[in-house]
Write a structure and sequence with these properties.
This protein has one domain (about 10-150): Aminopeptidase (3-Layer(aba) Sandwich). About 25% of the residues lie in helices and about 35% in strands. It contains four helices and seven strands, in the order βααβββαβαββ. It is globular and about 40 Å long. With about 170 residues, the chain is an alpha+beta fold. The protein has helices at about 20-30, 35-45, 90-100, 120-125; strands at about 10-15, 50-55, 60-70, 70-80, 110-115, 130-140, 145-150. Bound molecules: coenzyme A.
Length: about 170
Amino acid sequence: MVPTPKPYHPLEINQNPGVSELERLDRSIFPPGWGLEMYTSLLKGERTHGWILETVEGNGVGFLCFQRIDDEAEVLRIGVLPEHQGKGLGKRLLEGLLAEMGTHGDGKVFLEVRESNETARKLYLSCGFEEAGRREKYYSNPPEAAVNYVWSANISATEQPKTDHSNSPAGRE
Ligand SMILES: CC(C)(COP(=O)(O)OP(=O)(O)OC[C@H]1O[C@@H](n2cnc3c(N)ncnc32)[C@H](O)[C@@H]1OP(=O)(O)O)[C@@H](O)C(=O)NCCC(=O)NCCS
């Protein structure tokens, strides 16, 4: 007999989590992570936001970090804890952002990803992002090209983001 999959516990997106909880998830998914100092600095500004997908008990299972200026957003990081990957949670986080940006007629979301990150690239395509260019040697450790994606409420994939990179980590992913 095929076992019935266990129902997933209800999960909610916390749009105002603590910095240390964000940093802890970041470190678990992207070791060694950006660190508390970087997160504190990023989230001090009004443009950078961190969301955590968490259980009703308040345990974080994934997070999204993005910058937003008016009707444009740029994803800086998206991650789901390894034991929870492949269950639709990354998609849920990203679709939460797209739903917000979709309320603007001209809403756009930009991101870039390592060329070899096929799982993430599939996620972006499945959420309606389109490829919008490639940057050679954008990442280091190891060096690798970045592929740029854009999602548009109007499906236009030609523009560059106007988000503020002055306090963003280089080679973010
Ligand atoms: C990339 C990541 C955020 C995706 O989150 P996830 O919860 O595992 O993905 P989901 O279950 O929501 O799947 C969304 C889509 O991704 C694709 N996908 C997910 N897991 C996959 C796998 N193991 N292999 C191939 N494709 C996969 C599927 O196309 C899926 O869409 P579909 O269900 O409509 O077919 C997650 O795997 C992760 O945290 N990876 C490590 C960190 C990272 O690389 N982040 C991205 C760069 S910042």
